[in-house]
Write a structure and sequence with these properties.
The chain has an eight-stranded antiparallel barrel. Helices cover about 15% and strands about 50% of the residues. The chain has one domain: Lipocalin. The longest helix is centred in the C-terminal third of the chain and has 16 residues. The protein is mainly beta.
């Protein structure tokens, strides 16, 4: 049996438009090949829903912004999920009107652990050992 990638969970991503990056957070809910979820852009377009599918390591979904009229709200995303299942990248297009541009995303948990490790390393003073013997 083919072990299918399950991407359910929170991911952090970036998409580029005219070379300018926009960060986003996406929550995928995968059920078999079917995909749905929510996206929050770090930009004026804000919240969106998504619907699509995962077939093998290929992902495709349509992102529909909530705040805009249906006519200009939907964006196509296509991409490939990495072998370890922790990152993905591909191209997005506004139904081919703006050309195809890049996007990428990675699982949030991995990122948070790294950030935490970095933070802890920075916060810990180098001279901890020298501080210990102080008694009053």
């Amino acid at each position: 049996m083919d072990s299918m990638t399950n991407i359910t969970g929170t991911w952090l991503g970036t998409y580029w438009q005219m070379g300018k990056p926009t960060r986003f957070e996406v929550t995928f809910v995968q059920n078999g090949n079917a995909l749905c979820g929510n996206i929050l852009d770090d930009g004026y377009l804000g919240e969106a829903t998504l619907q699509g599918e995962v077939v093998g390591r290929n992902i495709s979904f349509v992102k529909s912004y909530i705040s805009i009229t249906k006519k200009r709200a939907s964006v196509n995303y296509n991409g490939t999920i990495s072998e370890d299942g922790n990152s993905m990248q591909g191209k997005w297009d506004f139904f081919e009107m703006l050309g195809f541009q890049n996007w990428e995303a990675h699982r949030n948990e991995e990122n948070l652990e790294d950030e935490l490790r970095k933070y802890i390393t920075v916060q810990l003073p180098n001279n901890v050992r020298e501080l210990e013997p102080i008694t009053i």
